Each structure stands twice: as structure tokens, then as C-alpha cells.
Amino acid sequence: MNSSIILSVTTFVYGLAAFLYIVSWVFKKEAPGKLALWTAVLGLAGNTAGIILRWIESYRLGIGHAPLSNLYESLVFFSWTILLIYLFVERKYKNRTIGAFVTPLAFFAMAYASLHNNSIQPLIPALKSNWLIAHVITCFIGYAAFAIAFGTSCMYLIKKRDTEGKSPLLKKFPTANILDELTYQMIMLGFLFLSIGIITGAVWANSAWGRYWGWDPKETWSLITWFVYATLLHAKMMRGWHGKRIAYLSIAGFAAVLFTYFGVNLLPGLHSYGAMGQ
Amino acid sequence: MTNKTNSSDAVNRVWKFFTSVKLTVVILLSLAVTSIIGTVIPQSGTASEYFHKYGELRYKILSFLDSIFDIFDMYHSWWFQILLLLLTINIIICSIDRMKATWKIIFVKIPRFNVSRFRRLEDKKEFSDKRTPDELKQIYKPVLSRSYGYSRIEQTDSGFCLFAEKWRWTRLGVYIVHLSIILMLLGSLIGSIFGFEGFVNIPEGESAKKINLRNTTEMHLLDFEIKCEDFSLSFYDSGAPKEYRSSLVIIENGKPVLKKDIIVNDPLRYKGINIFQSSYGTLAPSEVTLSFTIRETGMEYKKKAVINKPVDMPEGLGTFLIKDYSSSAGFKGHNIGEAFMGILTKKTGNPVNIMLPLRFPSFDKMRKGDVIIAVASHNHRYYTGLQVTKDPGVWVVYSGFILMIIGCFVTFFMSHQRLCIEVTGNGNHSMVMVAGTSNKNKIGMQRKIEILSEKLEKLIQSNEEKE
């Protein structure tokens, strides 16, 4: 039994959980929903075990480091964070339809990860730092919170399209107000952690290269993402924006997150170790 | 007189302009959109790099744009700096403007509570209790003073009002965030005025005092010398780099004062100057062993040689001189790696230029001469590439970082909560109303009121059971 097998199985478990959440939502049945929750919990347990085992395996190979050093490992951790935050949200808001919009994201991330090289590589000199763990973990908590905000923003827009409240599919949705509030909560959580992620990255850069900010494409794109969400927060707090406009901004913000994460690898820069094929 | 009012009008208008949140939104989005340019066009490249990348026509257009908008170094361009300056003014004026109102709310000796406002709240909770208001007062008071920083009781005609509040200061959270951004911008300004960013290449065994400043042709003279005693690099089995290590000594007034091995992520700091491992390269070896093979007989002779000193070839074939070394020599348009360039001078005939690539020892066979020359061995010499920086603003920026994290946490997840419990005596029992407000997260406050009201009701019951 090794981490690759556990994580491959986890991918399918997440796929099953996503499927069950969608079934429970579309057919308005309680039983698949309950099963979906337990499948998701099982998936999270597998994901956790996979990460820990991979960490141990790297030590067995004599190149021990936290499994946060390339695209594969970051995607696995991304899925883990999405699931963890989602399960908290489900518990607190007692609504499973959100799962139909969020767990597929974790499944896609894991499926996308499986397309990449999953062998455990030694750390290149630039990544050998204690800041690696703090930087990657905080960034991905931020990204995961934004991913969930993206899910609830989509739900909000779908809910609002059905102005007469006739669609049976939307009966089980949380109210528009709760979706709006949840989006906002997730964005605040994401913004706090994105800020900490950028800051830990800056401190790390300063201790490795002697400058805390160098306008490298990934740095710049994380700042662009930060600007988009800062705009959203000001619009919400000071101008009372809510509802659709916030939902659109949240989707735009998540697009910036995705570009920061994947798109930047197409551009040259210091963060190329997060790139494909590595 | 009219002049004065006009000018104060103008000041007012400017002030108003900068207090607008619309302006903030416009600036933030402009920064977001324009920042993309510098991630698409590589920044601070050389003219030939751009020419190579874009071709003649596009290079001409881009360099015209660069002459006006500095698009090849856009993050330091005048217009980007203006956007940052506008943001700074906007943040400062917005903060001062709103601070006036917040200040009055935060710094009051006796907080004011308005019962009728709490009564009007939709999500207040009410229940009745069989005890008199006086008895309830003794039970409620300690519960609230435990979880709220401030509480007081006001007597009313038929009972009492218990007011409590906590986290009034969290209204300052947003100003902490704004201050943090000002500190970061200020710190980077201090760094760009009083600091420098440079690099220096030091061969093993040598030392340097002058460094090259980045993006300029200027040099900077340090107060001390940096000596590189040794440079080493190691690889993983896969061929990926494992570690770059430079053994450095700081020499001040001719005396070594500090000695340290630096690797990537572990720099040397001395007198506010930071020295980082940044790159490395190979240098011309100081000594080379050449091999001369006579084509006819296959006899091989080995001789030591130094650059620019001719050596006599065996069997009286003439002399050979190593003229030059290149770490990446070119042959027919291909990079063939490290190579020596030499001149072969025979007793008769013209001198011949000869290339001796280290990677291809039999390269000289192609010349079809009567002697085949190759490099048998050589001692590797490296230089270490060091990034040398000084940034006195970094601690201002770091304090901004800390305030940013604290400020965001306070602004997003803490709120000024105010609570009112009104107890009205009605014959031999009391009516209790629990209501509360918060300046943020109203839904969370609502839940808190529900929990508190249930708790207060149960508190009474358990006391009744005891009796």
C-alpha cells in the first residue's frame, strides 16, 4: 500500500461523493445525501492518510520533505482543504445541496492531479526552507475558501434566475440571503489566508533572495487576485453591494485564483517548480 | 474674502473626491488590470532580448510604448507610481474622514444605551419568569460580567435594564488594515531610497569590495570585503541540483571578522547588508594537463600548461599556446559547453587555431593533423554569484505585514457587540427581554442572542429545582 494508490482511490471516492450529493439534490432524497456525507468523510480520511503516507515515504527515500512541493502535491492538498472547509460548512449550515456544487471541485482537482507525474522528487535548493509549509498551507486554505465561495456564488445566481420560486430543483437550496452571507464569510476567510500566504511568501523571498517583492508573474497574479477580492470587500462593506454583483465579482476573483494557480505556469518566473511535468 | 472661500471650496472638493469609496474601487481595479501587462511582457530585459522575442516590427511598437509608458519596467513607471500614490492618499483621507465618527464611538467614558432601540429589534427574545426583578438581577449580573467587558444596571420604574457590551475597539480593525498598507508602501519607499540591490561574482579564493547595482551600470563600494574561500555544488542521483554552497569570509580593515557558509535560503547578514547565494559559474582553470598524441605512432605525451604560456610540443613539433577559455563555446551554431581555444605554431607553415572542448576529447581528430591535442585533466574553478542587498525599510514593511494579519482578523471576525436585558416586574412575576446588536455579522449575533436567552431561561429553572 503506498500513497499513490490511496490517493488514486480517494479520487474515485470524491467522484462518488460528488455524484451522491448531486443525486440527493436532483431527486430530493435524504438517503443518498447521508451516504454522500459519509463518502465525503471517507474520502477526506483517505486524502489525509495519502498525504501523511507520502510524507513518510519521502523520508524513507532519504529526501524527506512535506508533500507540498509540486503541482501534483499541491492539488492533492487543495482537495483536502476544500473538503475540510466544506464539511464544516455542511455541519454549520445543515444543507447538503452546497455539496453538489463544491465536492465536484475537489474531485476535478484530484483527477487533474492524477494526470501529472506523482513520483516523489527531492527538493531543489530554492524550496529548502521552513517557510515552504507555512506559505503553501496558508495559500491553499485561501484558495479553497475562494473555491467554496465560487460554488455558493454560482448557486446564488442559479437561485436568482428562478424569480418565481417554481423550480423544484431549487427547493432544497439555502435561501438567497444565506448563500449571499456564506459567500461573504468564505471570501473573508479566503482573503485573510491569501494575505497571510502572500506575506509568508514575501518573508520567504526576502530570506532566500534578499527581496520581499520582485514582481515575478506569480507574485503579481496573487496580488491581482488580492485586488479583486479587496474591491469586492469594499463594495460590500462600504457601498452595500450584495447579491448578484457580489456573486459576479466572486466568480471573477476565482478566475484570478485559477490563473494564479495554473495559468502563470505558462509565463516565465521563479515559481516554475509548480509547473506541469515537474 | 471670496478668494478664501473659493480655495476652501476647492480643498473641500478635493477632500470629497478622495473620501469616495468609488475611487478606491476604481484604483484597485485599475491596479489589478494594469498589473497584468508586466506578467505578459517580460520586465527589465535587454534590448536584444526583446528584439529576439518580438521581431523587428513588434519590437519597434513596444519600444515606442516603452519610451512613454515604461512598459518594459512598468511596476516602476511614473503612471504605476501615480496609481499607488492615489491609493495611498485615498486610504489616508478615507481613514481620517471616517475615523472622526468612529473615534467618538470608541472613546467614550460611559457608553450610551438606548432601551427603545433594543426594544425595536426584530430578533429580540422574550420570556416570563416567576421571580421578582430584584432576584433576577442577582442571577443575571455575574453571567454577563463574565463574558462581556463592560456591564451596568439601570433601575427603571418597574424593574431594571442590564446593559453590556464588548469589543468596542474592534471598530478600529479596518484602520489597522489601512495603516498596514501605508506602512508597506512607506517601507518600500525607504528601501528604494536608502537601500540598494546588487550582485557580484567572486572567483574561488578571491575577494570583492565593489558590487554591481541591478538595472544600472553603477557600482557600489562596500565598507568591507567579501572573500569566497570555496564554492561547491552537489547533485541528486537524478541530476537535479541539491545544494549550492559558498564559504564566505567578511574582511574588514584587513582582518577577517565573520566566517559563514551560505546556501540558498540561508544568507549571511553583516552590518545591515545581506549576502545571498544566487548563482554560480565556471572559470578558466588555472592549470591544464594537455595530451599530445602522434597520429602515426600513437605515442601519447602529457604536458602541463597554463593560459597564455606556450608549451613546447613533443618530438620537436612546434609550440602550443592556450589562449582562451569559454564556459559555453559555440561550434557551428551549437553550444558545446566548456572549451579551451589555443594556437598551434609549427616550425613551418601558418599558426592554426584549435578548439578543445572538454566534453569531446577526440574533437581535435577531425582536424586530421599529425598531432592530436586534447585536454587530459584540469582543475575546476568556480565563481560564486552573490546577491548583495541592503534594505533599511524591511522592518517597516514587516510591521505592516503583522498589522495586516491582525487587522484583517479583527475586521472580519470580531465585532462590537451590545446587549440589553430588560426585566419588567409584573405582579409576582417578571417579563424578560433579551436583545443585542453588533456592527458586523448580524446573523452571528442573532444566534448568540438565541443561545443566551435559552441559557438565561434554563439558569432560572435549575435554580428553581434546587429549592
Tell me what the structure shows:
The complex is a heterodimer of chains A (278) and B (467). Chain A is mostly helical and 278 residues long. Chain A is built from eight helices and no strands. Chain B has helices spanning 2-19, 21-40, 47-69, 78-106, 115-119, 133-147, 173-194, 394-413, 442-466; strands at 125-129, 150-156, 159-166, 196-203, 207-213, 219-235, 241-252, 255-263, 268-270, 273-283, 288-294, 300-305, 311-312, 319-326, 330-331, 334-335, 339-345, 352-357, 371-378, 381-390, 417-426, 429-438. An eight-stranded antiparallel β-sheet of chain B has the order 8-7-6-5-4-20-10-9. Chain B has a five-stranded antiparallel β-sheet with strand order 1-22-21-3-2. In chain B, strands 13-14-17-18 form a four-stranded antiparallel β-sheet, with no helix packed on it. In chain B, β17 (339-345) and β18 form a beta hairpin. In chain B, α2 packs antiparallel against α4 (78-106) and α7 (173-194) runs antiparallel to α8 (394-413). Chain B is elongated. The mean pLDDT of chain B is 86.
Helix/strand/pairing category of chain A: mainly alpha
Our count of domains of chain A comes out at 2
Mean pLDDT of chain B: 86
- Kindly provide the radius of gyration of chain B, computed on alpha-carbon positions and rounded to a whole number of angstroms: 39 Å
Distance between the termini of chain A: 24 Å
Poorly predicted regions of chain B are none
The largest sheet of chain B has its strands arranged as 8-7-6-5-4-20-10-9
Strand proportion of chain B: 35-45%
Please give the largest β-sheet of chain A: none
Cα separation of the termini of chain B: 80 Å
Largest sheet entry of chain B: 8 strands, antiparallel
What percent of the residues of chain B sit in helical stretches (DSSP H or I)? 25-40%
Q: What portion of the residues of chain A fall into strands of 2 or more residues?
A: under 5%
Oligomer: heterodimer
Low-confidence runs of chain A (pLDDT<50, min 5 residues)? Answer: 272-278
How many beta-strand runs of chain B? 22
H and E order of chain A: HHHHHHHH
